[in-house]
Every structure is written in C-alpha cells, then in structure tokens.
Amino acid sequence: xxxxxxxxxxxxxxxxxxxxxxxxxxxxxxxxxxxxxxxxxxxxxxxxxxxxxxxxxxxxxxxxxxxxxxxxxxxxxxxxxxxxxxxxxxxxxxxxxxxxxxxxxxxxxxxxxxxxxxxxxxxxxxxxxxxxxxxxxxxxxxxxxxxxxxxxxxxxxxxxxxxxxxxxxxxxxxxxxxxxxxxxxxxxxxxxxxxxxxxxxxxxxxxxxxxxxxxxxxxxxxxxxxxxxxxxxxxxxxxxxxxxxxxxxxxxxxxxxxxxxxxxxxxxxxxxxxxxxxxxxxxxxxxxxxxxxxxxxxxxxxxxxxxxxxxxxxxxxxxxxxxxxxxxxxxxxxxxxxxxxxxxxxxxxxxxxxxxxxxxxxxxxxxxxxxxxxxxxxxxxxxxxxxxxxxxxxxxxxxxxx
Length: 402
Fold this sequence. Notes:
Keywords: ANK repeat, Repeat. InterPro entries: Ankyrin_rpt, Ankyrin_rpt-contain_sf. By secondary structure, this protein is mainly α. Among the domains are: 156 residues, no CATH class; 56 residues, Ankyrin repeat-containing domain (Serine Threonine Protein Phosphatase 5, Tetratricopeptide repeat). The protein is 51% helix and 1% strand. The chain has 22 helices and two strands. A two-stranded antiparallel sheet has the order 1-2. The relative contact order is 0.06.
C-alpha cells in the first residue's frame, strides 16, 4: 500500500514538469522514500503559511469528525493563545488555497455525486494514513521539519481552544438564533465537540483553558441552542425549553476540573436542583459512570436519594451504567437499595437488564428485594430473561426470585 502511495507522490511531483529535460532532472532528484517525499513537501511551504498548515494537520489527524473545507478554513485562522478567547479571527482570502499549499497531504473524502456538494461543503482528510504516521513519529520530531510534528494531546488542546473561542465569540456577538445552525458550520462543530477535546486533556490543560470551559458551561442557552448533549437528537429551537445548570452539564460530560471550579467558586449553589434528562447532576454523573464526579458531588452535599429523571434516582442510573464503584459510593452515602421509580423500577432490575453479574451480586448482598415489582420489565427476573442473561437469571432464582 505504501509503495503505491510513494509512486503517487512521485507522479504528483512530475506533474509540474513541462519539458522532457525538466522531467529527466526531476527524476534524478526524486525522493527515495515516503519520509523524504513528505519532508520535501513540508520544507517547501512558504514561511507565512506554515502556522496554518500545522493547524490544519492537527485537525485532519485528530478531529472528532472530518471537517469540511469551510470549517477547516475557519478553524485554522483562530489564533492559538490559551490566554485569549472569543476574539474575531481573520479570514482566509480563499479557502481553496488550502488545497494548493500542500495538495499531496490533503484530499477530499469521496462522495457519491459531486454535483450535490459545493467545494466548501466537501469533507477533507489526510491523503493517506502514512501522512499521519509520519507527522506523529519521532522521525519528523528529530528532523529539520520538527515544527510540523503533532501529537494527540497537543491537537486536543489546540482544537478545544479553537472551539471554546468560537463559542465565546458567538456569545459576545449576542446573536439570538432563529433557526438551527447548519451542521456543516464550524460553530456547530465547536458546540458539538468542545467538551470531547477538553475532556481528553483536562488533567493537563492550562488553567485559562479550564476557565474558558467553565465559562462556556455557564453560558447555557448560547451553546445549548446549537447542540445539547443532554438531548442530542433535538436540534430544533424551542421557546419552551428549560436549560439545566452548568454543574449538571459538567457532571454529565465528566469534566471533573470544571466541576471543581464551579463548586469551589460558588457557581453551583444548589447541587440538587431538578432539571435535564437525568433529573439532577448526581444522576447525570451516575448514568455516565463518572465515578470521580459522583464522589465529588457527594462530598459537596448532593443527595444520594434525590428523585426524578429517567432512572428515578442515581443508584438506578449507576446500576444501569454497570458501574460497581459508583453504586458502592452511593450505597456508602445512604442510597436506598430498594428505592422505587424510574425506567427500571429499581436498581436490581437495572443491573439485571444491564448484564453485570457481580453488580447484581452486590445489590443482593445489600438486601435488594429480589421480587420487587415495577419498571419496564416488571421485576429483575424478567429483565434478565429479556436481556438473555442466563447466569443472572439463575442467580436470581437461587436467591428466591419468583
């Protein structure tokens, strides 16, 4: 595969030759391997364009989803400075110029029918897997083009910063959305993925980055109207929507540092306030299996038996997530093992349907009622049967299930 790629790159080099003598000269100077070809391409990029190419390589190598040409053109002009957010970026004079800077490194994804896609709405990718392999390797890091060396952590920091900056810029403009944002816009990408990029590097992110993330969480409607991670399918705007708190979303998204900042700075006054798909911040964290956040919330006064939300209570949410550690934390803080309500009726039924046998053991040891009725499947035995969990089914029978 790499040999075909090598030949393709050589042919691209020869494309610029317009006379037989030029071809012969180029043949004598052709790089002998892919590393040499990529080094040659990068080394010829004009100085004034280098920062844009490096940013583009980070996005193309590590973005959560492929960007369109228009998105990438907007993303790479955002000045990377962890101390600055929300400033109006410059714009590329011509987005298509990206393709002319390093055509052998970037290509468009294939689409079924080009006529239905404008150039700026076509999605981009690195031209070959060997491009990413080279850019993240120690070979480039130790060579003359070390400037272009990339890593996943640095890319997540750069991408997270750009997304936060774009959302805060949108907030500063005070624009009220009257229709949903196009999914091909960079603003939509920013709202959809900023928390994934920041979450990946949260432990090592500079303080200004965490501050900016907390600020976005507190914006509420400004970014949730664009994309609400609590209700992903709901894109359309609605005047009747109720927005949950910043601590709710930071708990749901497992943004531990943001949770700490919100709690320590007094921005999460009522941890037990109701709202959102999961009813409260503790249940949201438990449903996602976010152990560190669950522990943090409990330490700051979250009620282990608070009711509401899809699962009725945090214990049932943790049981459905299959997280033994979350369940143990909640039980240690007084969660009622037989609390009723929610989709599954009780924690035992949720665990039985989820298929975690050791968790079912744990709940039974903590005196969960094996024949408790309610919920989607009526009782734990029927939940296990519906899920095809034979070992859990037998365990429940041994413990007196009827």
